[in-house]
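Hey, resending since the last one bounced:
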Amino acid sequence: MEIVLENTGKMYLYNWIFRNLNIDFKSSTHYGILGNNGSGKTTLLKVISGILSPSEGKVKWSHKEKDVSEKISRYIGWASPHLELIDEFTLEETLSFHQKFKPWVANYSLPSLIKLSGLKKSIDKPLKYYSSGMKQRVKILMAVMSDVPLIILDEPCTNLDDNSIQWYRNLITEFSSDRLLIIGSNDPGNECFSCKAFYTLGKE
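The structure tokens again:
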């Protein structure tokens, strides 16, 4: 997987969030997008993922040397504190629903994923009864364990306690080494421990 930004910029209400970005994200590399709250990290990640269109410049997506711009969502595992889950679903229902759109990496089974989540004791509870940290685990699990070449995580350690942060680090170490991983963070020590390249955004 490769993503190329060419003179890319994004504007909101006549203000530039970022501008003139030229970045080449290459497969099997982990990248950190760093910056304080309000610096534009989430906006940039949404542009990289195709959720938002740039105001100027271009974003190109390719996989195995083929242009995948028109179906980029199929190639991305995405997790963000702002991502909404269906609160009425249980964990099992959530994972089963997600699988209808994207298969699991290494043909993982539903019972194996539930065990990996560390949330087995709460398997029968609707997600509305989960804590914010438990919901964040579910989001990260679905993003990382989807069989996709690109993983984008926006501040993945938000709401995670120390045990869950270690769970996150173990998951990234075991399942993302051969994939393109892009992480937005204001806490690179915990979240971007595996990143080999960094880009820093200024304040909006």
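The helical segments are 41-49, 91-99, 110-117, 132-145, 162-175, 188-191.

Sorry for the duplicate.
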